[in-house]
Amino acid sequence: MRLRLFVSRDAGSLAVGAEEVVQSLTAALRQRGIRFDFIRTGSRGLFWLEPLLEVEAPAGRVGYGPLRPSDAEAVISSILAGGSPHPSFLGLVDEIPYLKQQTRLVFARSGKIDPLDLAAYRQEGGYHGLAKALALDPAAVIETVTQSGLRGRGGAGFPAGIKWRTAARAGAGQKYIVCNADEGDSGTFADRMLMEGDPFALIEGMTIAGYAVGASKGYIYTRSEYPHAVATMNRAIAQARAEGLLGPRVFDSNFAFDIEMRVGAGAYVCGEETALLDSIEGKRGQVRAKPPLPAVSGLFGKPTVINNVITLASVPWILANGAEAYRDFGYGRSRGTMPIQLAGNIRYPGLFEAAFGLTLGDLVEKIGGGTASGRPVRAVQVGGPLGAYFPPALFDTPFDYEAFAAKDGLIGHGGVVVFDDRVDMARQARFAMEFCAFESCGKCTPCRIGSTRGVEVMDRILRGENREANLALIEELCETLRYGSLCALGGFTPYPVMSAIRHFREDFMTPKRRCVAT
Amino acid sequence: MTNPTAWNAVLAEQIIAGYRDIQGAILPVLHALQDAFGYIPDEAIELVAQGLNISRADVYGILTFYHDFRRSPPGRHVLQLCRAESCQAMGGDALADHVRERLGIDWGETRADGSVTLLPVFCLGLCACSPSALLDGRPMGRLSQERMDALLDEVTS
């Protein structure tokens, strides 16, 4: 007998000791003379169970988690005894309710396969989408993406097909596909997980986009905070090149396409698409005024499709399975699935890919299990540092672009950060201003100066100085930021600030407050 | 920790020359220089400007725009502690206060003995195991005060 064992090498799994568990298991297995193969996968996204060990069994993979290195002996005995009894034994991984309730289209492979095993990728449906695309006319590929209803998953929710069509019609000559992998929102990690867990899906999606709009070059711009994702993507790109899946003759066709990785340098604002383009060009990452749209004049002044990782990684599935199959999932005008990321003070943190339409309350309470601390949920920030704070009173809001907008919020890139009843919402509002000040690119005045003034006014409120007058002032400042800023950094900072004031006003009225040092 | 080499203009010029043919090369060049030397000394500005045929003002502007680039040598260890919302929700602020107090330094500073540099970071994508940090590039999650103390003992000894 030879055991087949699977442990994630996702940065999130490594952060909680996956490597130490593998070493400990390896030593124990060797000592017992048991033959085994360790397959290092991406993560399933069930992070409260990490480090998670999966073992191939006749009925499918069974899991053990969360493991400590000291569990190795007992776990091996349990494996040899057919799965029990061990307190960390989880049974069949596919039957774990958190996973079973999901609709995994984009994350179908993450956690299952070695992310750099191209044969495994193809066996699990990889490159069917590109094969179908290359058999179609480029315009038909764009039509399929348009019909699928796919909208940009970075946060703006703009229809991907329309963006592609604009770039395709922008004349001949050099065009670019740029993947925005500058995932800076706190509470989000879907892009990172996808790049570390299924990098070929992103490569395939970008290649399809390149074929559809007539681009021969793609860039992936990601964060220096994601060293593992950078390493995995680079290796995957090199492999795809070696196998003829990137390069002058993709799939032996006349279509040429290649991809280059670019790594940012700690500037949140570079997640804004035009700042990102400037950063690739070798400039300060400052926001451009629009128009022109990047689809018309983008990178190096050429027509450019710029999409988020998840948007592009959704495309192979859509091509392989058809626009209708994708459009059948979803809610209202939000079609398909969204990888929702549950984070912060939550009992079951992780990635939950589902069709749009689940309510926020179901996500936080039913799926997420409430808080990790066991205390009541007080506030949930959805959509990153520029997203609104929602109180439990709004838990009936369905996860959908329009429904969140109607409640003065946004779903952004799908991050959900839960806070318990110890949170001080006035401090959170101050932090939103502080973050904006720290990350402002400085190009427009409302954001550059308004954010610093916002921190000062919040400090006065925290000290209890002229509270009503200062609250009125901060509301006015938020109006200026919202309508006067060039991009979403200044424009959306009012979401967390104003939602905190609106839903948690009592926190702004408490007299005693320790002064917040930066 | 990767061991940076002492500043060496010849090596720096070789590094820069390796990027001459790519478009928008400055960020990759600055990353490569920082990887090699641990920081980007002022002498590098002139070399980068010449090597990429851009002005020194441009190099300076880019160097100072991006939070990652350091203009003085870091400590032997670099601790990047996440300060963003998900980690805040899990006690990240108190942990950060504790770290600053124990190390006796503030954000962006290096201890006088050169052992460790403390940097703030806004999200490492490790939000499902908050609070989190990168220590010399190694991801660390579910950081309790005890675990952090053990790490700090390791890096300051």
Protein architecture, described:
The complex is a heterodimer of chains A (about 525) and B (about 160). Chain A has about 525 residues and is of the alpha/beta class. Chain A has helices spanning about 10-15, 20-30, 70-80, 95-100, 120-125, 130-135, 140-150, 160-170, 190-195, 200-215, 225-240, 275-280, 310-320, 325, 360-365, 400-405, 425-440, 445-465, 465-485, 490, 495-505; strands at about 1-10, 35-40, 55, 60-65, 90, 175-180, 215-220, 260-265, 305-310, 330, 335, 335-345, 350-355, 375-380, 390, 415-420. In chain A, the strands form four sheets. A five-stranded mixed sheet of chain A has the order 2-1-3-4-5, with helices on one face. A five-stranded mixed sheet of chain A has the order 13-12-16-14-15. In chain A, strands 8-7-6-9 form a four-stranded parallel sheet, with helices on both faces. Chain B starts with 8 loop residues before the first helix and ends with a helix. In chain B, strands 2-1-3-4 form a four-stranded mixed sheet, covered by helices on one side. The mean pLDDT of chain B is about 95. In chain B, helix 1 packs parallel to helix 3, helix 3 crosses helix 4 and helix 6 packs parallel to helix 7 (about 145-155). Chain B is built from seven helices and four strands, in the order ααααβααβββα. The chains are: A alpha/beta (about 525), B alpha+beta (about 160). Chains A and B meet through helix 1, helix 11, strand 8, strand 12 and strand 16 of A and helix 2, helix 4, helix 5 and strand 4 of B.
Give keywords:
heterodimer, A: 518 residues, alpha/beta, five-stranded mixed sheet, 41% helix, globular, B: 157 residues, alpha+beta, 7 helices, 45% helix, 11% strand
Write the layout of secondary structure elements.
The complex is a heterodimer of chains A (518) and B (157).
Chain A: E1 2-8, H1 11-15, H2 18-31, E2 35-41, E3 53-57, E4 60-64, H3 72-80, E5 89-92, H4 97-100, H5 118-123, H6 128-135, H7 138-148, H8 160-168, E6 176-181, H9 190-197, H10 199-213, E7 217-222, H11 227-242, E8 258-263, H12 273-280, E9 304-308, H13 309-321, H14 323-327, E10 330-331, E11 334-335, E12 337-344, E13 350-355, H15 360-367, E14 377-382, E15 389-390, H16 401-406, E16 415-420, H17 425-439, H18 445-463, H19 467-484, H20 488-492, H21 494-503
Parallel strand pairs in A: 1-2, 6-7, 6-9, 7-8, 12-16
Antiparallel strand pairs in A: 1-3, 3-4, 4-5, 10-11, 12-13, 14-15, 14-16
Helix pairs in contact in A: 6-10, 6-13, 7-8, 7-10, 9-10, 9-11, 10-13, 17-18, 17-21, 18-19, 19-21
Chain B: H1 9-17, H2 26-37, H3 42-52, H4 56-65, E1 77-82, H5 85-89, H6 92-103, E2 116-121, E3 133-135, E4 138-140, H7 145-156
Parallel strand pairs in B: 1-2
Antiparallel strand pairs in B: 1-3, 3-4
